[in-house]
């Protein structure tokens, strides 16, 4: 009888077990990435921007933030929001000179069409202030949904120091409704429109294409 055979079988089984255990995180990671991809795809389909514009905006924000980090580090608090290649700058910088230099730096990012420089000349906002801004953004978005006057997906909300900035490809009627809802939301100090206005005909055409591109719901 071969006394080494049981040990050999045990090692073989052990290796198989280890392989399965090691594989589980990898497989889970794949599912996680897939889920993120599906979520991003759903957001893209509900957005009025063309898919390439959506991706371009993500690239603009990434490159802009990299440049800010390389040039200013933690000396400034600047938020970069790109919508249809129109960039909104919010946050705080220590001087008018730096405010201008930040705008010049970001204007050099590829694909940027225009810049709305809303940077305040002040010290960086506190953690409490930023948390309140996040809360106000959520509050405004929730009121958009409750009002049912337009699709909340069509309006991007950015809040800084209690000031709400509204972006999106919207009709004049949608812009007015969104601004009125944001303006009457408790805690909002001011509303700034950074919309790109399109005609009702353009909106219907874009929304029609979006519906056609949306895959059927799986049950």
UniProtKB/TrEMBL annotation:
Pfam families: BON (PF04972). The chain crosses the membrane at residues 16-45. Residues 56-123, 132-199 form the BON domain. Keywords: Membrane, Signal, Transmembrane, Transmembrane helix. It comes from the Bacteria. PROSITE patterns: BON. This is Transporter. The lineage of its organism: Bacteria, Pseudomonadati, Pseudomonadota, Betaproteobacteria, Nitrosomonadales.
């Amino acid at each position: 009888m071969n006394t080494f055979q049981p040990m050999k079988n045990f090692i073989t089984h052990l290796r198989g077990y280890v392989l399965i255990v090691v594989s589980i995180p990898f497989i889970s990671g794949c599912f996680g990435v897939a889920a993120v991809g599906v979520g991003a795809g759903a957001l893209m389909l509900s957005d009025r921007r063309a898919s390439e514009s959506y991706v371009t905006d993500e690239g603009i924000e990434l490159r802009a933030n990299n440049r800010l980090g390389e040039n200013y580090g933690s000396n400034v608090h600047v938020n970069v929001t790109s919508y249809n290649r129109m960039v909104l700058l919010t946050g705080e910088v220590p001087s008018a000179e730096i405010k201008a230099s930040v705008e010049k730096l970001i204007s050099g990012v590829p694909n940027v069409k225009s810049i709305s420089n809303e940077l305040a000349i002040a010290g960086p906002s506190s953690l409490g202030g930023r948390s309140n801004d996040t809360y106000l953004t959520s509050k405004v978005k929730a009121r958009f949904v409750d009002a049912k006057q337009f699709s909340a997906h069509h309006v991007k909300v950015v809040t800084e120091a209690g000031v709400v900035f509204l972006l999106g490809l919207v009709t004049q009627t949608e812009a007015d409704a969104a601004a009125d809802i944001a303006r009457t939301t408790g805690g909002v100090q001011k509303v700034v429109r950074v919309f790109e206005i399109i005609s009702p005909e353009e909106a219907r055409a874009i929304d029609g294409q979006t519906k056609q591109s949306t895959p059927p719901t799986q049950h």
